[in-house]
Design a protein that fits this description.
The complex is a heterodimer of chains A (260) and B (95).
Chain A: H1 3-34, H2 43-71, H3 77-82, H4 102-123, H5 129-157, H6 161-174, H7 186-193, H8 204-218, H9 240-254
Chain B: E1 7-14, E2 22-29, H1 32-43, E3 51-56, H2 68-72
The chains are: A mainly alpha (260), B alpha+beta (95).
């Protein structure tokens, strides 16, 4: 194999890994949000949360599907979603945290939705055409998600004493998981250099400005504590992901090849 | 959380450009902005519409069952309000 074909193969494998990561972020969060279905605070919100979950799961299918097409080894989106184990998932940890109470869910959604807003915007400039198409489609959903999570954050942050207490508690709990969203590893750096991946480090200031704006109006404060948990992109997870995967993958593994 | 403190809204969806908004149902929400978002989630998930109206149910002034006779009976004996009451001239064959 010549040096240049070897490089080509490597960069294709890089892209596949990158797509799977993005798919992991979406499917894990989509599954978490789906846990609200039939547990929502009232019917209308229950359905709204179900819609958001479906948006994320749909997005995961697009990323996994693109990875499956590129991998040319017969793998399908289902293989990525249902037949990999915990250490093979490379989602950011913030997406796998339990759904918590409603305030917890809203704070996580707010932070992730605002992140996605900038991430998808940047992804639209990728040199990979399929990624651009996915970003176009997903950013419409994300505009709606941002509207929802922002208005809920204002409602609850600026609501009763109890709702404010729970919101701030959630912020204090989740904040330390937000830092790895803006860290780039070697794989992503290679793809950034090739014009394919998003340089997450560049998103931090815009994201922070958005969060501060909502927090100020909602009466929430960014924690002073500087602890940070990281490891999702390396496959090091919290104790929560394994439990999530057992539920999410159970049917597929118990009935291989089953169809509706 | 319950829906006790939420307000009831009626939802109208316009299925296509050129058609009228149609009443599709009702829902609970805190205020009109939230009602519009929920209307989108509850009633247009399968791309049923291109425009949504929401209105507080309490703001609708509706005719009552008791008013039925005074409201609607008088039109029964006025057949000349229907186009079919009038005989068509022979020259017009296709109507």
């Amino acid at each position: 194999m010549t040096q240049s074909t070897q490089n080509k193969v490597d960069s294709k494998q890089d892209l596949i890994n990158y797509l799977v990561r993005l798919g992991d972020d979406s499917i894990v969060l989509g599954h978490r949000v789906s846990e609200w279905v039939s547990n929502g605070p009232f019917l209308e919100e229950d359905i709204a949360l179900g819609n958001v979950a479906l948006d994320y799961i749909g997005r995961a299918r697009l990323f996994y599907g693109h990875a499956a097409t590129l991998s040319e080894d017969g793998k399908t989106e289902d293989d990525f979603a249902f037949l990999r184990d915990e250490r093979e998932f490379e989602n950011y940890l913030i997406n796998e945290l339990p759904r918590g109470d409603f305030a917890y869910t809203i704070v996580r959604q707010l932070l992730v939705d605002l992140y996605n807003k900038h991430h998808l915007q940047a992804l639209k400039s990728s040199t990979d055409e399929t990624l651009v198409a996915i970003a176009e489609k997903a950013s419409k959903e994300t505009s709606y998600h941002c509207r929802r999570s922002t208005s809920w954050a204002l409602r609850l942050g600026d609501g009763t004493q109890e709702s404010k207490r729970r919101m701030q508690l959630a912020v204090d709990d989740i904040w330390g998981y937000s830092h790895e969203l803006f860290e780039v590893d070697a794989l992503e750096q290679r793809l950034i250099d090739a014009g394919i991946a998003v340089d997450c480090e560049q998103l931090k200031q815009q994201w922070l400005a958005d969060v501060e704006e909502v927090f100020e109006e909602a009466g929430l404060t960014i924690p002073e504590a500087t602890w940070a948990v990281r490891g999702g992109r390396k496959g090091y997870h919290t104790e929560h992901l394994g439990h999530l995967l057992t539920q999410m993958q159970f049917v597929h593994r118990s009935f291989p090849g089953a169809t509706w | 959380m319950t829906t006790e403190k939420l307000e009831l809204f009626e939802v109208f969806v316009r299925p296509k450009r050129g058609l009228d908004h149609k009443h599709v149902g009702s829902l609970h929400a805190e205020d009109k902005e939230q009602a519009l978002e929920y209307a989108r989630d509850v009633y247009t998930r399968r791309t049923e519409g291109i425009s949504i109206w929401v209105v507080k149910s309490g703001d609708i002034c509706a005719s009552q069952e008791d008013d039925r006779e005074s409201f609607f009976d008088p039109s029964d004996d006025k057949p000349y309000r229907h186009a079919t009451y009038y005989p068509l001239p022979k020259e017009i064959s296709n109507m």
